[in-house]
Here is the input.
Amino acid sequence: MKTKVILSDWAFDCYVEEGRFDMLVENDFEAMDDIKRVEKLVMIAIWCIQEDPSLRPIMSEVSQMQERVIDTVPPNPYSDSIPAMLASQPEGTTTGTLGFGLSAGFENESKGKRQVVDLENGSEVIYIPRFLAWDESWKLLEYLNKHIPWTRPQIHVFGRSCIQPRDTCYVANEGLPELRYSGYQPPVYSWDDYPPLKQILAAVHDALPGSSFNSLLLNRYNNGTDYVAWHSDDEKLYGPTPEIASVSFGCEREFLLRKRSTKSPKVQVQVQSYRSAEESPSKRLKKSNQSDQHSFMLKHGSLLVMKGYTQRDWVHSVPKRARADAVRINLTFRRVFQT
Ligand SMILES: O=C(O)CCC(=O)C(=O)O
Ligand SMILES: [Fe+2]
Here is the structure.
């Protein structure tokens, strides 16, 4: 028996549920050859046919999106309803669900596709593009954007003081040794005040048996001018082989990993990298051997895990990206060792 489907619903399912754009253009070899463009056009189309006309883009936004290559946030069907749902929550609630079905519908797709990249010599990265369900991830983005007490601190890099080029917040268990980076000691917030963070943590623990994270550094990149320069999270309080689990929401941004040069000290790597953060990805790739540099376009709802000696032997960054014009929130879960 033939089943009838609504074309737009099928396209939406292919995009959101499956992440399979190729299914839409089967046998169209020209389209298959340019799958990124297919992805872009599908995103634009879905954005344009939302039920609420006020959420649809205007023509100038559509043409701007078409001109850009990839930094586009998929349409958020919940943008209208979330604030109302959150508003119905009693202020100061610290336990229980938040009323948008997070605990029940919190879908952990950790059994789904995971990519393991062996960085050799005991370093490894695991990437799960669709770790959290797409719609739950939107609700989380809205929640975090609104409720986290974001600050943009003054930090010190190479003896110079500057404003950190992204917003930040730190959440940790009570009684841990204090975190200090770039001359800045962030205030410590409690997990209890942000129940969705505990749920994300539980999903991460589920996906990574044996892990037990007790602290979280949150970053918010408001647009493409916000970034994180080359660094490694090699603070002593994380021990010699820290496992760092990074969950991303919102605008896709490029996450780069580069092998530390064995000859040059850490400083030299960083000086070079400030320059490379301004260069196009193609130029950056030409500079180094493929296996010495890896790039991940971190998707909305994705999980990336750095393991083993990655912090000792590699540096990472999220470079500026002129064309990224929407907010991205990233959570990095870490384990602080008690001394
Ligand atoms: O935003 C990201 O993906 C990475 C953030 C990061 O490297 C950090 O907070 O140490
Ligand atoms: Fe980092």
